[in-house]
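tl;dr need the bound structure. longer version: we got a ligand (glutamine) that a collaborator sent over and nobodys looked at where it sits. i said id run it. heres the input, straight from their email, havent touched it
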Amino acid sequence: MIDPLERVAKHRRLSEKVECFTESVIREMTRKAMINNAINLSQGFPDFAAPEVVKQAAVDAINTDINQYAITWGAKSIRDAIVTKFGEQTGLQIDSERELTVTCGATEAMIATLLALVNPGDEVVVFEPFYENYGPDSVLSGATPRYVSLEPPNWTMDISELEAAFNDNTKAVIINTPNNPTGKVFSLSELKEIARLCRQYDVIAITDEIYDQIIYGEPDAPLVHHSLMTIDGMRDRTVVINGMSKSYSVTGWRVGWTIAEPAITEAIRKVHDFLTVGAAAPLQEAGAIALSLPDSYYQELADDYRARRDLLCQALDDTGFGFTVPDGAYYVMADISAFGYPNDVAFADFLVEEIGIAVVPGSSFYSEAERGSQQVRFAFCKRMETLEAAASCFAKLT
Ligand code: GLN
């Protein structure tokens, strides 16, 4: 037992901000998976190899002595490649010298953006459930989050609730599409509503588009990822965040970026420079090669993820989980009420310890634990054999 006086003394040594959040539950569940020798469907990282050509490009970059700092806001090669790819996807012309910052993953991109934009007390609209990092990001940047619900089962957004969240103190809105953890792909009409409010209240949209290449739809009804920046009046009030992690299966490389008009970019670059100086130089060179892969690469990536999604969803359905099949990204947010557990944490502990599968408790994605207490998140960015092994483990639950 810690002496109360000792606790007070210890806490005085720490930042009050740090006391406001816990360590990442997603990353904690990976550790629990390892301890229990369980199949890890918690943290969203692939258990399969990155493309050979991308790995070779990194090796080549090191062998040609690209081992010192790149320009702090990114090597020219990857910035040019991002501009070309983003231009093909959106039709927008980006100035690689003034509108782009290469960061240490999308994670740094988000916190650098918030630190560059937000003053203490500014409100930031966040859709809930949200990717776990946005909570601590708000605390660290001093933002006051205003949550707008995405309601299960179809993760629908209520326009009047969205309107009520915007006011004169709103500085930014964070949109993650395709969405982690729900798999929702925001429709063009939903994005237009968000854009209308951004224009009305002079708000900046921060769009985390890290899953933009992982999108499903049906053969007769293809789905399209829309970047909010393409909507009327949003070119200069949107910060686009993306990175290499998910599109090229290199989550450990930590190469991400922001795209934003020059004044916002200048602010992000300043924060980024003093946070990290820059992302790994040889991996940025490999990024330039990765971004030049042909369309067929992305088609195959999405097709492979569709097969993984369908395998997991079938197994979840057979076992009695409730869920909506995701339209994008590589997660299923599932309802666990059929299993009669008091909460998500107890159920996740049971799954990892007794069934041999690690998942993320749903409460990690909500501001109030209660709202996620009958949900858990499965990640399916895993080999088919891994998912088949998980499906066999589920049999113990039925
Ligand atoms: N985005 C992934 C997830 O949600 C990985 C998060 C992380 O650990 N950086 O699981």
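gonna send this back to them w/ a short note. The CA atoms of residues 92 and 364 lie 35 Å apart.
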